[in-house]
Amino acid sequence: MLTAALDAGVSVRWAAADEAYGNGSVFRAHLREHALGYVLAVSRSHLIPLDGGKTRVRADQVAAELPDSAWHRRSAGAGSKGPRLYDWPGSTTCAPTQTPTTVAGTAS
Length: 108
What we know:
Blueprint: H1 2-7, E1 14-17, H2 19-22, H3 25-33, E2 37-40, E3 47-50, E4 55-58, H4 59-64, E5 71-79, E6 82-89, E7 106-107
Parallel strand pairs: 1-2
Antiparallel strand pairs: 3-4, 5-6, 6-7
């Protein structure tokens, strides 16, 4: 669907996806190829590249090692079962062509 939109000339600057897409390196590579920013959910067991890819650490371990002060609750709007609140740590962003800084989010 994203490729079709891009091929049709739709102006796209970023994409968001759940862990079904976030765990896939092919989808992430496709986004980078098109220089798109992105926010992707990943499973807790997903290996996050750190130190320029030299080290890989599980996403849940990265999140657990963050101090409490790093986390901020944000709303994703109203859902059918009430507010959709997520906890996110602060992060540094980068251009789509660079290695991204990992951001972990958890549902409240």
